[in-house]
Design brief:
about 300 residues, alpha+beta, 6-stranded mixed sheet, 4-stranded antiparallel sheet, disordered N terminus
Length: about 300
Amino acid sequence: MYVKDSIFVSVLPAAGVCIKSFKTNSNEKFFINVCQTDEIPAPEDITEEELAEILQSEAPSSFRIPMSISDPRTTKDKSNNSVDVCDIAINPKFFVKVQKSFLFKDFFMALIAEALNDKYNVQLKIEKSIILQNRKFIGALVQHRVRNNDVKTVISSYKQPTEADKMKLKELGQTSAEFVSGGKKIPLIQEVEASEVDILKQKTENFKENSSKIKQDISLAGTTEPEFKLRAKLCENKVEELLAEFYLPKCISSHEITLDVGEDRILLESMRHGYMFDKFVNYSLNQERTRAIFDKTNKMLQVRIPTYPVQ
């Protein structure tokens, strides 16, 4: 759904994924709806190896990601609590690449953190962020206004434009414009800032030296279910808590493990080591009171998940 004139396109992006993060200063939840629209051009199509080389270079900000960021707003989470949320719209082709590549996902998350900090003074614990598995967005998605001249600037920067890109440039002509979202002027291109460069470089050092190992890890990700025990704690013949134990012999730290507890779903991942546990249960789970401890000696992750009483 969009309205178009010679200056901008007003578009309502399609749903993508919802990311739950936490503010560093208050530990409050902050949600990011990553949505997608063809009206925002994709960045130049590069490989993981090329991105790693760019991040190791003297000009890591030379690879730019077109995106639109809405103003943060308040909505309700599933527990009817007030939470902050913003929408970030990107091109569907780049959305797919972020979904498939760990390196591009880390790169994109770093850009999100930097952009929200710069524009709205929102600092997030990106290392604690998780992609929700059971919902694509929270609240209602908002419209974005894509200014034509910024689209033209992005496509003009392509080293090898396609025929479709050339036709788009011809259509845009010499229109002068800018990118606007939520009534506030913002740049279409988000660049890596100096504060993020060192982090990104560190993440890619091993990538260049061990690219074959990383590709093997990626191909194995999500293919091995860890050994586990799942028990129910009863009180007056009613289940009041689920007790889960996962044996993760390859993991050396809790930072290598992602745990997401949904309303009736338990999802555990260790993408680095290829572990994946994804189960639905016949109970209403209390995510807010879930507790997990990883024993580095025994390589055991213990999870306690209270349940809501059956209505």
